[in-house]
Amino acid sequence: MVGWVDEGTGEAGQLRPATTGPRHTHWLGRRLLDIAWLMRLHRPIGIWLLLWPTVWALWIAGDGHPPPRLILLFLAGTVLMRSAGCVVNDLADMDIDPHVRRTRDRPLAARRVSPREALALFLVLVSLALVVVLQLNALCVKLSLAGAALTVTYPLLKRFFPIPQLYLGLAFGWGVPMAFAAQLGLVPRVGWVMMLAAVLWAGVYDSFYAMADRPDDLKVGVKSSAITFGDLDLVMIGAMQLMMLLALYFTGRLLVFGAPWRAGLAVASVMFAAQLWRARTRAAHDCLWAFNNNNAVGLVLLAGLIVDYSSGH
């Protein structure tokens, strides 16, 4: 029988595979769980944060009625590319992760998965993602190549770029122009405004995550916005939150959205304020709470969109 046991690292959702039973079942179960862990399937928060802006864009490009086929294709592509990004990130960090408490028991860091196996998994995931994107139009295929390049280069950029969270935002927001291209055959101005909001949002939540990792990142020499911002970390995060909300407000003005969308933005602003208040301690568990709370922000904004279109937008 295969199960999960708490790793004891203190990070929400971080688990270690535990196995019992016959020897072959034990080995196979352990391998499958290590692969799942390498892909971060036990921590779907990353999938949701990557998916929310894409779903917003699908909803807008589809005028409130996105085709179910496109939703399924973008969902599959999101899961595959987020998983591929996690694998390539661990490949790049396999000599760093063993020295960081939060990451030292990852499959590659603990040498339960070899670099060759991880590379093979990465290639399989990217190949499957290519199969998915080939179901879309030519512009989407071209945009996907740029998105794949952003995913692969992010782990290297954080070695020297002082605010890699914004570069990660480019990768996480790239689904927005792809969603518009898939339905309209072009990316209108509002699509790029929404992508700017997605980039800023990733800067917000990944900066909270970086605040939790700041002591370890300083030790191993990895760059992050939390290190760059220093004592002004919450001020800078607050500024990014405000700019994101303004970008989304401008999106609503361009599309002539009504009260439901503005109400969604108002609720999101209150949630942002709660995140800043909670993270004021700089304690890792509070910063991780603020990071995870952004999943609810994505849901609230989608709800505002759905209600706005349902009310006759």
- Tally the beta strands: 2
Mean pLDDT: 88
Mass-distribution shape: globular
Number of helices: 12
For the termini, the CA-CA separation is 52 Å
Describe the strand arrangement of the main beta sheet, using strand numbers: 1-2
Uncertain regions spanning at least 5 consecutive residues: 1-21
Strand residue percentage: under 5%
The sequence of SSEs as H and E is EEHHHHHHHHHHHH
Number of discrete domains:
1
Radius of gyration: 20 Å
CATH architecture: Orthogonal Bundle
Structural class determined from secondary elements: mainly alpha
CATH superfamily: UbiA prenyltransferase
In CATH, what is the class?
A: Mainly Alpha
> Helix fraction?
over 70%
The biggest beta sheet is recorded as: 2 strands, antiparallel
CATH topology: Tetracycline Repressor, domain 2
Brief summary of the model shown:
It is built from twelve helices and two strands, in the order E-E-H-H-H-H-H-H-H-H-H-H-H-H.
Question: What would you note in describing this structure?
Answer:
- There is one protein chain.
- This protein has 313 residues and is mostly helical.
- It contains 12 helices and 2 strands, in the order ββαααααααααααα.
- A two-stranded antiparallel ribbon has the order 1-2.
- Helix 3 (68-92) packs parallel to helix 5 and helix 5 (138-157) runs antiparallel to helix 6 (164-173).
- It is globular and about 60 Å long.
Task: Please give a handful of descriptors for the protein shown.
313 residues; mainly alpha; 12 helices; 2 strands; globular
